[in-house]
Amino acid sequence: MSSAKAFRIRRAADILLGGGLITHPTEAVWGLACLPNFPAATARLLDLKQRHPAKGLILVAHDADCFAPLIDPLPVDVRERMLAAWPAPVTFVVPDPDGWAPPWVRGSHDSVAIRVSGHSLTAALSRAVGGPLISTSANPSGANPARTALKARQYFGEQLDYYLVGETGGASRPSRILNALTGEAFRE
């Protein structure tokens, strides 16, 4: 990794660790990100997106171990299917009966959406903050997701604390969202 890239990741991570809100490239689109242990940052993200808090948000990490409290209790066949699918733009909705994820992440659900990203910058950012980040498409609700940093800037301008420079992974659509237990698709 170049020193410039490492500096940008460290800068983005420091902003996140301070309770900030950034945008970053993911597998297909640009994402808005904050850390799940900062309810004020999450509220700010939801406000900028004009997204209802009841809908819940996706947690993205660099490694499935970040989600061990959610994955370990699952049936073996479900765990194996999830682990075989990652890292990739596949999000699984898993039960969260013990409230591992904060309520502002789960929304009105007793489950949480999780993904292990194969995108190098997204994974590096998760690694740099030491765990998962909230990451949702960088667009106001109802608008097309930003596929470039320029489009993200057009949507949010100076309302974000940092734009992590980079390229999306080239996927044609945002991550698939599947019910981990049933395989039902919430988004193809």
Provide a descriptive summary of the structure in words.
Helix 1 crosses helix 6 (120-129). The chain is an alpha/beta fold and 188 residues long. A nine-stranded mixed beta sheet has the order 7-1-2-6-3-5-4-8-9, with helices on both faces. Helices cover 33% and strands 21% of the residues. The longest helix has 15 residues, at 3-17.
Number of helices: 7
Q: Could you tell me how far the N terminus lies from the C terminus, measured between alpha carbons in angstroms?
A: 33 Å
Structural class, from secondary structure content? alpha/beta
Q: Sheet with the most strands? A: 9 strands, mixed
How is the largest sheet built, in terms of strand order? Answer: 7-1-2-6-3-5-4-8-9
Q: What portion of residues belong to β-strands?
A: 15-25%
Order of helices and strands: HEEHEHHEHEHEHEEE
Number of DSSP E strands:
9
Gist of the model:
The N and C termini lie far apart (33 Å). The chain has 188 residues and is an alpha/beta fold.
Show the helix and strand layout.
Blueprint: H1 3-17, E1 22-25, E2 30-34, H2 39-49, E3 58-61, H3 68-71, H4 76-85, E4 90-95, H5 103-106, E5 111-116, H6 120-129, E6 133-137, H7 149-156, E7 162-163, E8 176-179, E9 185-187
Parallel strand pairs: 1-7, 3-5, 4-8
Antiparallel strand pairs: 1-2, 2-6, 3-6, 4-5, 8-9
